[in-house]
Amino acid sequence: MNAKKTNCGCDQRVPVADLLLGNRRVYARLERETPSGSHKDYAGRFIVEDKRRRGEIHQRRLSRFLVPSSGNFGHSFATHTRDDHVKVVIVTDVLSPKPLRDRFRDDYNHVEVELVDDPDDTGSHMRARLELIEKLRRDDPRLILVDQYSDARIPRAYEMSLINDMYRQMHEDLAAVFVAVGTGGLANGLHQFRERFQLNFQIFAVDADGSCLARPPKHGGRRRLSGYGNGIAPPLMSEVRAHLDRWVFVQDEEAVEMCHRMRDQHGTWVGPSSGAVLAAFEKIATWRSHLLPKSGHVVAILSDGGEVYRDTVFNAAWLERNGLGEFLQTQTSKTLTAERNERRRTAGEHEPRSTDSQRRSSHQRAADERQRHRS
What we know:
By secondary structure, the protein is an alpha/beta fold. Helix content is 43%, strand content 16%. It has 12 helices and 10 strands. It has helices spanning 40-54, 72-80, 98-107, 126-139, 153-169, 185-196, 235-240, 252-266, 272-287, 316-321, 325-346, 356-374, and strands at residues 16-21, 24-30, 63-68, 86-93, 111-116, 144-145, 174-180, 202-208, 246-250, 297-302. The strands form 2 sheets. It has a 6-stranded mixed sheet, sandwiched between helices. It has a 4-stranded parallel sheet with strand order 5-4-3-6, sandwiched between helices. Helix 1 (40-54) packs across helix 5.
């Protein structure tokens, strides 16, 4: 994997990793390298700058913002308002990474966290979050809602930054994009960018198997991972759903397995939505490769890094508690086998086999044994 320079021969602010999965090449944008550590950095920064222009953020009076987020958008908004005269209330839930919630409390004096733990049958906390938001707004009318689920500025923010940058990185030869879907902002931006410039790249929407964005959860599946999928379709997602070319559904086990593979094989930590995107590409490349374009570049947008998921995706006890222990045992077995094979390769060992000298020694021992019996 080359995370600094692609085969396209272009350097970039956000690194692009050149990967081979299912015998097909994919260029993976590592959005963890943005200032706040995820692709939500673009949207958060755009909204903050626009609020400054509109006077909603002013150094002479305290502005109060209410930000619903599963983690990354809230972190972006907190990062870009750090030096402003504001108070930010982030409404999140227990699926969000605990290290990120701790960072809100420890590193940002202007941030308060409201934590929701009331999942629906699919494991989503979206309805409970929305209910809490309405209550907080009733209790404090001064709160200004920053609604990443319906704000039309969100897709536009991605168009002007991430998507435009990605298109130039691929020398305007973009054939397909694999993107995790949840709030719908980035997928919506991809569609609008394609329409605005009359392009024809395909959009592969990567969704959790237990999500309700495109269809009811299969086999009553329940989401255990944050960052993609949703219990209900937010407005930005509903707007774009019919314009997405393909849907690829990924089980939690597949997303986690890919996260571990990226860490173990490439030394790159990615979050669960990024693992899902790469797992989706590999499934298509392996089993339905005819769906991929025959020419042009395919890009996978990796939303964030995996460091804040050490307590979940990369934690054995958490995996066991959440029904992913079988994956862990399989992964451990694969790792041990790989390590054993690597030791053999390094030492110049091979699978055990009888050499001529070993066979002669064996025959000699047998002959000696027969001679003793005769005696």
